[in-house]
Specification:
There is one protein chain. The chain is mainly β. It has one domain. It is built from no helices and ten strands. The chain has strands at residues 2-7, 10-14, 19-23, 32-35, 38-42, 46-48, 56-66, 70-76, 81-87, 90-100. The strands form three sheets. Strands 2-1-5-6 form a four-stranded antiparallel β-sheet, with no helix packed on it. A four-stranded antiparallel β-sheet has the order 3-10-7-4, with no helix packed on it. The N and C termini lie close together (10 Å). 12% of the residues are buried. The mean pLDDT is 95.
Length: 101
């Protein structure tokens, strides 16, 4: 059984027991979070649309963290312009506990 959930502007295919990193959620480690935006659920047959209107996915927050540094380098030739910048994206790692369909 798997479900497709939407969070942080992205969609993820999840099963029970999966660990995944999603965009930062404002919850503490150890607490539970419920994803209400379920796009599809498959338990042998795929259900989408109104069939999954009240489906939810329950997950436990494992940790809050920041990803690897991405270097952004801007350069314009012949003018002496160059600029180096770094970015680390914040994430929340969750473990999928139950798919309620």
């Amino acid at each position: 059984m798997y479900a497709i959930i939407a969070t942080g502007g992205k969609q993820y295919k999840v099963s029970e027991g999966d660990m995944l990193k999603v965009e930062k959620l404002d919850v503490e480690a150890g607490s539970t979070v419920t994803f209400d935006q379920v796009v599809a659920v498959s338990d042998g047959s795929l259900k989408v649309g109104d069939e999954v209107a009240n489906a939810t996915v329950t997950a436990t927050v494992v940790e809050q963290g920041r990803g690897k540094k991405v270097i952004v380098y801007k350069y314009k030739r012949k003018t002496g312009y160059h600029k180096k910048n770094g970015h680390r994206q914040a994430y929340t790692q969750v473990k999928i506990e139950k798919i309620n369909a």
